[in-house]
Amino acid sequence: MRKPTHTKILITGAVSLLGRYLIQQLSDRFQLFLAFHRVPQPVISSHPQIRYLSLDVTNLSQVEKTISDTCPDVVIHLAAVSNIEYCQTHPKETRIINIDATSHLCQILSHSPTQLIFTSSSQVFSGQNAPYRETSLPHPVSIYGKTKLSAEKIILKTKSLSATIIRFATMFGWPPDGARENDAIFYLQRLQNTKKIYLVNDRFYNPIYALRAAQIIDKVIKMKTSCIFHVGGQDRVSRYSFVQNLISAFDIKNPPILVPVTGNYFKNFFPRPLDTTLSTGKVKQMLRFTPTSLITDLRHMVNHPLSSD
Ligand SMILES: NC(=O)c1ccc[n+]([C@@H]2O[C@H](COP(=O)([O-])OP(=O)(O)OC[C@H]3O[C@@H](n4cnc5c(N)ncnc54)[C@H](OP(=O)(O)O)[C@@H]3O)[C@@H](O)[C@H]2O)c1
Question: For 261-293, how does the pLDDT look when each residue is reduced to its tens digit (9 = 90+)?
Fold first, then answer.
């Protein structure tokens, strides 16, 4: 176990899948300020190093006050609207939260020693030229992807800002109460209560376990240079093969029939890019991160259900 430090970390959007794994990863060594939004103060952990605060990142004076009260060494900015369908139908709200609030945070943190860690997404890519490296040209097709890319550009343009941008592939894991579902949780429920599941078999991604995402963020804390990193899992899969792995890892007896379909089958959904697989060469080399296989991480999920405390 590593030693506790005096480093203070503010996490916006802390009641989230990634927030939960970050708290688990960091709370022994750092003073954490966990900012929650609509979900009332959750008892995520009773650890003495943790303080809770309420924060709407679109409320500019509240953000300024929070930064001046907490004086964080690091801000991990998770707060966002991330549901692709919701973003498509609520573009104005999405821009205000994903772009404007990030821009304001950059202004507050510029010319200060505080490091900003921003969680971006593989959705900044069109899906036509995977696997994507950090040097690949982004071309988002969804509102969500466009707002994440705009926020990235603002961060990179802000003078005297120490910032790390991490583009994550789609994450899975155990979310806290009140947080959004992810593929693992969604399909685990459907595997219990459905006879037949239609699953897209021609769109690809390399999903990342939220625990690994939190471990990567831990590695970039207090990094001196501004940088972009791509982080995804070892395996490139479709939703169809993701669910096959889920059945195997969770040892689900008599699963429903899995029907492979093309992405066009679901007419009501915003079409996903064909292949958003992220290349992980840079994190392997610079951060000594070794991506793990999907089945290994799903088995880890089986054996490590996060409790509510
Ligand atoms: N999950 C993924 O697959 C994935 C992949 C790549 C990147 N990311 C990015 O990684 C970050 C964490 O993702 P996640 O899936 O764990 O969480 P998430 O479901 O995107 O949750 C985001 C958090 O932001 C908060 N939030 C929304 N509007 C806010 C506001 N106005 N003020 C303050 N907080 C606000 C939400 O709180 P309320 O619900 O209470 O509003 C929630 O706690 C996000 O930035 C996401 O875009 C996620």
Answer: 999 888 878 878 999 999 999 999 999 999 999
Cβ atoms of residues 195 and 256 within 8 Å: yes
pLDDT in tens, 78-127: 999 999 999 999 999 999 999 999 999 999 999 999 999 999 999 999 99
- Kindly give the number of the ligand 1 atom that is closest to the alpha carbon of 79: 24
Nearest-atom number in ligand 1 for the CA of 122 is: 6
pTM of the full structure: 0.97
Answer CATH for 8-175+208-232+278-290 from 3.40.50.2300, 3.40.50.720, 3.40.50.10610, 1.10.630.10: 3.40.50.720
Q: Which amino acids bring their CB within 6 angstroms of ligand 1?
A: 12-13, 15-19, 37-39, 55-58, 78-82, 97, 119, 121, 168, 170-171, 179-180
**C-alpha 134 to ligand 1 mean position (Å):** 22
Q: Number of C-alpha atoms within 13 angstroms, CB side, residue 16?
A: 24
Residue spans per domain, the chain: 8-175+208-232+278-290
Among 15, 18, 164, which is best to mutate for testing ligand 1, by the most ligand atoms less than 8 A from CB? 18
What residues of the chain score a pLDDT lower than 50? 308-309
Cα–Cα distance measured from residue 265 to residue 116, given in angstroms and rounded to the nearest whole number: 40
